[in-house]
Amino acid sequence: MAAEVLFVDDNKLILQASVDLFRSQGIELLTATNAAQALELFRQHEIAVVVSDNRMPGMSGLDFLTELRRLSPDTVKVLISAYVDLATALAAINTSEVFRYLLKPWKPQEILDVVQEGLRRYRTVQAMRREDEAVLRSLAQTIELKDPNTKGHCDRVAVYALLIAEAMGLSKDTLRQIKYGSWLHDCGKIGISELILNGSGRLNEDEFKTMKLHTDWGADLAEKARLSELAKNIIRHHHEKYDGTGYPLGLKGEAIPLEARIVAVADVYDALTTDRSYRGRFPEGEAREMVRSMSGAALDPGIVEVFLEVVPAAGPLPSSEEVLGEIPPGEAPKKRPNLTLVRALA
Q: Least C-beta-crowded within 10 Å: which of 185, 212, 275, 307?
């Protein structure tokens, strides 16, 4: 049974307008005029996204979405209100895990975009939860489709991080989780507009604030997918800086999880050695010196030292499977592209 979209509003004209709007985009809606009807639909259907008005007879939209945390925790929740109410917005985020808080009257394109984002988010969680390596890799590659400049980024970051972690003597299980976290470190970008990801210049202040949200959004996806704590740490903290000036929490030094400090070095090096929309790539030698210059500031100096010793300055990279000893050196890993997943998340 395919996951569905539910709109809840006591105004039947709004419900009909919503049905017509989404049907024009090939999306059929379920509708309910109150929370009690909506809760009954949750017992009969798999609902990926619910959009609920706040002020309704009986149970309010906020209380309804709070109840869904128990009944259907994976459902992506959107709350709509006719009033600017900071207290309600904060409660929606903190107690109901609301994905978006919108004001009436909403714009057609705005609500379409939010629901489409919600559907992608729901499908992403379901895919990640299976923790099948082919699915996780396909998911990472699908996210890269949003930004053509990052093709192959997740695989290369995984290899750099694994070379560092192996040299540091970390366990095989830890290395495997570092691989998963590296593949998915940017999964929160699924909620970032392509206009921001693919802009030709440096991000302005507002765009950068939005971009920074991808670490928390990604960690939330990983939490819902029940990935390991180690993988979640990489997703949430790979943009922390050793001197405490990074995000999202401004952690400093060894307060940053070790696995995130490892992936941060790998991520920075790959970013420097690949073309981006706003600049060309740096030669490997120059990029290595730039990484060295960040030692003790953005990057952990001990990990930078290991990186410079074990990551080759030139030549072909091994695959992550080769680093983990899962296939003989030089043998190509088996590829099982998950085209269904790619289409669903695109």
A: 275
